[in-house]
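Q: Hi! First time asking for a complex rather than a single chain. Here are the components, and I think there are two in total. Is that enough to go on?
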Amino acid sequence: GAGVSQSPRYKVTKRGQDVALRCDPISGHVSLYWYRQALGQGPEFLTYFNYEAQQDKSGLPNDRFSAERPEGSISTLTIQRTEQRDSAMYRCASSLSGRALYDNEQFFGPGTRLTVL
Amino acid sequence: QKEVEQNSGPLSVPEGAIASLNCTYSDRVSQSFFWYRQYSGKSPELIMSIYSNGDKEDGRFTAQLNKASQYVSLLIRDSQPSDSATYLCAVNTGGFKTIFGAGTRLFVKA
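A: Yes, that's all I need. Here is the structure of the assembled complex.
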């Protein structure tokens, strides 16, 4: 079946603009995660959804970052008033369940490379 | 202290040798442990998960978990040049958050 998809794959924007990054998880996966990955580092947790409920947003860097998953499937990560330090690879992952042991294996999408000029 | 620590490497092994990758974690209540492989410019790919103490084998890969020592490792037998990648250790405490290490770069020399 289809894996996790993300769009756009590349986004170049000017400082101060808002951007919206989209994630389409694997069909049937209840849990959805957003990460940010800097070069040479592992993915850094941003936020987690269980169905449509955002159950952990402790990793969002500041209030310019927000995420939603209104129908429990596709999710959007929005960054308002972008800054150059927001430039990174943004990755989305999904799992069957975030809570249940053995069902919390996460599968990653290809990522969106964001560049803020 | 970082929550999940890995030696950044690079770890260089000859083709056919055993590559040993190590990871330590700080949260004693951690329940789920994962190894991901990430090729340069690609997204992380899950290769092993382990949930209980001991060894878990899958093909050329063996994951080892020791919760008392807060240590998880990955052995790659008969290493191939195609195994050259960054290996990420990830730990879930049973909540929602999964913490990744910075990764160990592995080079397998032909």
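A: The mean pLDDT of chain B is 94. Let me know if you'd like any chain examined more closely.
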